[in-house]
Amino acid sequence: MSEPALVALRGASFAYEDGPPVLRGLDFEIREGRALALLGRNGSGKTTLMRLLSGGLRPHEGRLTVQGQPVTYDRKGLTRLRTTVQLVVQDPDDQLFAASVEQDVSFGPLNLGLPDSEVRARVAEALAALDITALADRPTHLLSYGQRKRTAIAGAVAMRPRVLILDEPTAGLDPEGQERLLVTLDGLRESGTTVVMATHDVDLALRWADDAALLTPSGVRTGPAPVALARTDLLREAGLRLPWGAATADLLRAQGLLAESVPGPRTPDELVALVAGPLGASGG
Ligand SMILES: Nc1ncnc2c1ncn2[C@@H]1O[C@H](COP(=O)(O)OP(=O)(O)OP(=O)(O)O)[C@@H](O)[C@H]1O
Ligand SMILES: [Mg+2]
């Protein structure tokens, strides 16, 4: 059986002032422990959806629930939501504002009114998780882009949310920076955080996510990543291409080299393993 939704939007509609509807009657669920990738073309509403899920925007129709309980948009309700769901925005410069890395990362826990010792422990833990302990005293405005991104994520991690939502976390990172971030996210997942990310990178989504949600003009389609990201029709509707792993699997199947029942590769290593093995062709 599937896990109950930790955070859910039901029948949610939203439009910016004077703008056309961005989301209409949307149902969306974050299930505990399932790494979720949110994909869609520029302007499809990924950022808007993430802001609705984290309480920064309020749906005009429909509602947001946490473990089945409707979120209230008063101070108390929003504080409760923020201890459950944390959003890391696309541009770290929209998130960072304190003078030093440590001050920035402490801001959220201090605002919760936690004792100093608890704040210090959380900040130390978040800096270590993002591998930026050595940057603690650095002025945020002197950091590189990748360092600012890690600092912004550390600020969210210090809140110890159950759900961490990241808007395009790998955009602007170099290949090694992307790999380091994925290792960090794996660590957070292992320690029980549910991670959701928006990305345009279908290859990354296939490799990283358990589930993929595709934002299309006719609504959001969610499924297991290897299934959703092999649907050329949905991908085209969402303005995306087939991940290389799915494209490779199609080619191998067309040549009779891969059985329908054998999943395609998600990484180059998996392709090597497939090619080194009997290519699963005997099964089909
Ligand atoms: N603050 C705003 N005021 C008015 N319209 C907005 C605002 N933010 C976004 N929009 C509009 O809402 C729609 C959805 O934008 P959103 O930023 O959610 O898309 P996105 O999927 O995150 O795009 P991208 O891939 O470029 O980040 C777009 O048409 C955009 O122009
Ligand atoms: Mg966006």
From TrEMBL:
InterPro entries: AAA+_ATPase (IPR003593), ABC_transporter-like_ATP-bd (IPR003439), ABC_transpr_CbiO/EcfA_su (IPR015856), Co_trans_ATP-bd (IPR005876), ECF_ABC_transporter_ATP-bd (IPR050095), P-loop_NTPase (IPR027417). One of its GO terms (molecular function) is ATP binding. Its main location: membrane. It comes from the Bacteria. PROSITE patterns: ABC_TRANSPORTER_2. CDD domains: ABC_cobalt_CbiO_domain1. It is found in: Cell membrane. Residues 7-242 form the ABC transporter domain. Pfam families: ABC_tran. Belongs to the ABC transporter superfamily. This is ABC transporter ATP-binding protein. It comes from Streptomyces djakartensis.
